[in-house]
Structure prediction request, 280 residues.
Amino acid sequence: MNEAALDRIAAALERLRPAPAEAPNWDAASAFVWHAEPDHLEPVQDVNRVPLQLLLGIDRARDTLMANTRQFAEGLPANNALLWGARGMGKSSLVKAIHGALEADYTGLKLVEIQREDLPSIGRLLALLRGADVRVILYCDDLSFSHDDQHYKSLKAVLDGGVSGRPGNVVFYATSNRRHLMPRDMIENERGSAINPSEAVEEKVSLSDRFGLWLGFHACDQDAYLTMIRGYCDAYGVEISDAELRAEAVEWQATRGSRSGRVAWQYFTDLAGRRGVAMG
Prediction:
């Protein structure tokens, strides 16, 4: 093969390799979204979140995650956290709300969201964050894996794995509907069909064990559901009697076939609109 052909191959490989991401202007925003190919951090000026005081019925998870995040913001040891459980009970809202509650006191505390499909690029993101003069909550929403999914291998780099390990200025928070990040029937199927059942799923199940904090979120009962809505009404100045609120809110949840913090917020949004109250 002649020299010209080798030069063309080298040039083609260079084009395929993602260009190194430029260090962002950390003063541009308190939150960023990571995008891969081309690698860059996009500043988010207006974070989609609700105030921490409006997240009701999850007091234990709120207090635990707040304490862990405050430790991290102060440069003290802190754990990676997995927020798992019922849909619509405030897992992702809690992560964003806690960052919002602390960012005024700790201006160097940044929130960086990475999408699940971009996990293979997490090594490049960690290289960019390593040594930055900020402390970063790296956040992935709705994290889970299927039986043929290899993305979980990329995640081990941030969960204390690899030679370089997790940068000291980064903590990882993830939300999932699954405690072990994979479907229960998949765990049982692989255990039942494997030559060595314990090894068949150990690699994936052990991923969830690498989180120092497991915070469970469970479906709310009707009283908690109504308390959430009353809290929204009080916070935004929507006047409605307890009897009317109860009748409407119960009917609303019946039409949705579920009861959760998300459903409570959806009912309140409808109520505020009907009452002519602006929310934002």
